[in-house]
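debug: dumping io for the single-chain case to check the tokenizer round-trip. Nothing else runs in this session.
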Amino acid sequence: MCPVDAFFEGPNFLAIDPAICIDCALCVPECPAEAIFQDTALPPGQEDYLAINAELSQQWPNITELKPAPADADEWNGVLTSIFNVFIVSYALKHLGTETTARF
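debug: decoded output
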């Protein structure tokens, strides 16, 4: 799916390395959760996710082959949004400082 292998797999979500991504947007329509946005078309308030993706993609293994979605993916679509936001705020506090976190 990604021609430059910009995806990295974490324990419960994927990160896209903005330094590798070529903004081709091939992945955008492929995401069943509609959770992928080009960095030039981020929804308001999502700008800090670029830095988080950049850092996490350096820590997690690269995905070079398409994997099937987990069997319960549809059940979790949208449910993890608030849990993920709590994780992001905690992560931002620890790694990016309070100035970044204040925007969440």
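debug: round-trip ok. The two ends are 30 Å apart (CA to CA).
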